[in-house]
Amino acid sequence: MRPFELTLAEAAAALEEGSLSPVELTESVLERIGAVEEQLGAYVTVVAGPARHAAARAERERAAGRRRGPLHGIPFALKDVIDAAGLPTTASSRVRSGHLARTDSTVAGRLAEAGAVLVGKTHTHEFAYGLTTPQTRNARDRSRVAGGSSGGSAVAVAAGAATFALGTDTGGSIRVPAALNGVVGLKPTYGLVSRHGVTPLSWSLDHVGPLTRTVRDAALVLAALAGHDPRDPATLRDAPAPGALVPDGDLAGLRIGVPANYYFDRVAPEVETAVRDALTRMSAMGAELVDVEIPLTRYVQATQWGLMVPEATAAHERTLRAVPELYAPDVRVLLEAGELVSAGDYLRAQRARTLMRRAWRDLFERVDLLAAPTVPMTAVPAGQENVTWPDGTTESVADAYVRLCAPANITGLPALSLPVGRAHDGLPVGMQLIGRPLGEATVLRAGHAYETAHGELGGVAGSGD
């Protein structure tokens, strides 16, 4: 197995035992980027020189006995809405032409402190405001969308062009591309991970989290990221200690909620079959499956858009007025639409969110986790704008991809997407595990146990090329 094909945990173990060096691992990932980037378009920029210097420094530190932890010497990528000192943060937009970050974001700083090696910045749907990331192609099928808005991060991880990556998630933007590319994506509890130094889309819905090849890897990255940050007033002071986030154990006694409504409505048959098969396996592993009714589902879409659209427009108010022509048409129309949302509508969305949070809190009195499809369909062909369901309903691709992810953003609950199968054409299917607030340990434990017993995809996309 070539170094770029190793999971984070495997690479960390090889580094610890001395069978692999940070320089060798980083060089392998950089070579992999060179081999696949032209076909996939995952990166905005690659920083090969600084990455090699950071890897050499990590190698010297490890040789001297200074081991910073499992991320020490591991190559990673940042979604290009996340600041890294001295590098552009373009948000994949002409609006940000010439922008240069003066300081690290909190998450970039914490990864640097952990000794991780930054290899580049990955493409996002412009300003993270979309679900396809059109600059980037799906790692499993280049004729398909990558998903978004963290599409570049998901594709880089799936293709072996990064050992792990960070993304952001406002309505599914970590979990959607994770599901469509067959990798793991974790949206933590709102406030668990700082967003300081991250270009905002919607302040009350934005989250930062990891994209990895395994659940175990996601836990290792989250442990380095989690914690209070006074520069982000939304971060929580009572976050769990990082050690508590490392998954271990089985599914014995775990109560898993299976939605009787909403999450299996207007879902492709192959997606439903794969997720229900995974639930059957989890039951065989000791979990108790509990049928649950998802509350207030008729308000999900209106609440998500009622919060996100005006908040995004407020964040872009100055540049939208100064240089509207620099925005891509799909993003510009959304930003302009936000100017039409009244204060009353925004307050109604806030009230609806409060009611939804209370109702979901009551739901979790009966179960420990909720399991459901991440997205209702696999990756659509690039350029497809709508999907028509068997009941005659037509839905935009963006609305379809955000529909099953939005509740976890509205409520702020932790949500993990992991691959659980393939459709007939080989495209991956993702299952979503949603937990209680600060329930990352339980979510990760369940995902890790399933993955260990029934891992579906494995391997790096196209690594046999």
Main traits of this protein?
single chain; 465 residues; alpha/beta; Amidase signature (AS) enzymes; two-stranded antiparallel ribbon; 38% helix; 15% strand
Description of the structure:
- With 465 residues, the chain is an alpha/beta fold.
- It has one domain (3-298, 345-454): Amidase signature (AS) enzymes (Alpha-Beta Complex), CATH 3.90.1300.10.
- The protein has 15 helices and 13 strands.
- An 11-stranded mixed sheet has the order 1-3-2-4-6-5-12-13-9-7-8, sandwiched between helices. The chain has a two-stranded antiparallel sheet with strand order 10-11.
- The radius of gyration is 20 Å and the shape is globular.
- The two termini are 13 Å apart.
Structural class: alpha/beta
In angstroms, what is the radius of gyration? 20 Å
Highest CATH level, the class: Alpha Beta
Overall spatial form: globular
DSSP summary, beta strand count: 13
CATH topology: Amidase signature (AS) enzymes
Count of DSSP H/I helices: 15
Supply the CATH superfamily name: Amidase signature (AS) domain
Report the biggest beta sheet as strand number plus sense, adding barrel if it closes. Answer: 11 strands, mixed
Question: How does CATH name the architecture?
Answer: Alpha-Beta Complex
Overall pLDDT metric? 96
